[in-house]
Amino acid sequence: MTPEEKSLLERVAKLSEENNQILHSMRRSAKWANGMRWAYWAVIIALSFGAYYLIQPYMNSLISALGGAGGGQASTISIDPKQLQDLLKSL
User: Fold this and answer.
1) To the nearest 10°, the Cα dihedral for 65, 71, 73, 75?
2) DSSP collapsed to 3 states, 5-62
3) pLDDT by residue (tens digit) across 1-29?
């Protein structure tokens, strides 16, 4: 092997090791990013359930107050299609 070939081979080996280190770093960064993404969504979902748990008693009392004596259920509004058609014609 000539000195020139040996130099070229050493240079290729050095570049290959550097490339390997860069690829490992990229893979490690991708794993961290994926883990942080999971943690972000877990926090969002947990906070949503926590907010619902804290607001639920107030919502129940509001629904029962608006529902009147309907046993805590909000009343539904029923509209006759004929009445709706007449209303739209009058506009």
Assistant:
1) -90
2) HHHHHHHHHHHHHHHHHHHHHHHHHHHHHHHHHHHHHHHHHHHHHHHHHHHHHHHHHH
3) 899 999 999 999 999 999 999 999 999 99
